């Protein structure tokens, strides 16, 4: 189940942003156990490094980046991704880049806390709690 995680979901775990961190942590543990093939956008890595360095310091940020690189497949961002994002009808360029990267990497789902930002998505988009419920439902129907 190839799933791209939005930056906000990863930050919820790394910065322990309540009340969101619990559901996000459940999903990251599913990536760790290979129940989900987790993707993150290449731009997510740089954004997380920047924000975690400011919030937690450079050593913690470095550890978080190493964790991300060991757990997730990195969805590349190149000229085609950026051009498609710029031409898209997404109101937010960053979300458009994430979406285009997900599509080009072969992700089938996107998990984000900003569902409204992905109204133009052709991929199914879920909030973390909702995606946990979808996964449980699929597991129970197997």
Automatic annotation (TrEMBL):
Domain of life: Bacteria
Pfam families for the chain: PIN_3 (PF13470)
Domain (PIN): residue spans on this chain: 1-119
Name this polypeptide is given: Toxin-antitoxin system, toxin component, PIN family
Originating species: uncultured Desulfobacterium sp
